[in-house]
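#onboarding

Welcome to the new folks! Below is a worked example of what a typical request in this channel looks like: someone posts a single protein sequence, and someone else replies with the predicted structure as tokens. Don't worry about understanding the tokens yet, we'll cover that in week two.

Example request:
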Amino acid sequence: QGVGIVIGRLMLVATVVATGASSVAFNTNSDTTTDTTTDTSGASCPVEATLVERYFKEKLSGSSLKAPEIVLVKGPNMLLQEKESDAHKTDNDEYYLMDDPKFGKSKMKKAFCMSGNLDFCPPLALSSTFLFDANANANAAANANTTSNDSTIATTMTISRSPENGGNVEFTSRAQLEEAFKNGSLHPGDLKATVGTIMVGVLEKLSAGIKGDAETTKASKTLKAYEKKANKKGKK
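Example response:
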């Protein structure tokens, strides 16, 4: 397991160097960041961020390559499977920024989702992040700029089920959703089907945003070209 983690981190550094990235974002969410250290300024950050920073400073200081800006952000956990090490991961184990929207459903079908298990349940976490939490934040922002509640976004999750399986059911909070999942009245398959549709919408918005910005589109093409080249080398 330790070897796989080390290899994964070294590959990340290599990717940053090979793509000539001007900036690199690292997730500081405690749910997604397992190891932290301190950067050159003494601030806490993910180990991967420190490795990138030190590599450019200690190994490439005399080269023409410019060190990328390290950006620390707190983002959602996009993991769909828990693996012992990065060496065992596949493309279906999490959602990625440039995923085709169609992967919203296909990846969710393979996501870990054990009945009654709330400790690690990607469908529950993602529905909370992109439906309940997102709408709550949007409503808070809207209410801060107006005295009317006409712009309030309804936060309702509708699980579609056949009549023999109990019929459609609605949830207005994560707490309600978790309770139904915990007591077994909500089947994993029904939950995953609904969240898969939600993720299609999320990926469609991301795709539109990338295509609508020239610099981001250029960066995404660079990443895809590097990925294609790396895959070819891996097959040799």
